[in-house]
Amino acid sequence: MSTQPSSDLTTFENPRPARDFTIRIDIPEFTCLCPMTGQPDFAKLTLEYVPDRLCVELKSLKLYMWTFRERGAFHEAVTNEILDHIAAATQPNFMRLRADFNVRGGIYTTVVVEHRNPAWQAPTPVQLP
Predict the structure, then answer these.
(1) In terms of residue numbers, what domain contains 86?
(2) Are 65 and 4 in contact (CB under 8 A)?
(3) Is residue 91 a part of any domain in this protein?
(4) Would you call 20 a catalytic residue per the annotation?
(5) Where along the chain is substrate bound (predicted)?
């Protein structure tokens, strides 16, 4: 196989650093292992962020997500770890990661974590009639 999992997150320059805009990335096939049973856990991840100077490159993000496939991780821990890594690589103004895990033992889990640059001021939303 020519493509392998990788923890390296590649970034590129924000094409419009003077404008606040939101990037939304859906990752519908995230997998990791239950640390208690070793059985696979499946989740849909939604990453939303307002970039500052850097954006995350999608192929590197895909290969990064692949690194969790064979790792045991609690839902809460893995969601926070992923956000921490992507935020460290991109230094966004704002970032939110939502992890919607499939049912396990009759229970669905959703974990939402956020990162905010304390120096960033969110723009006032525009209300249209």
Answers:
(1) 27-116
(2) no
(3) yes
(4) no
(5) 56-58, 75-76
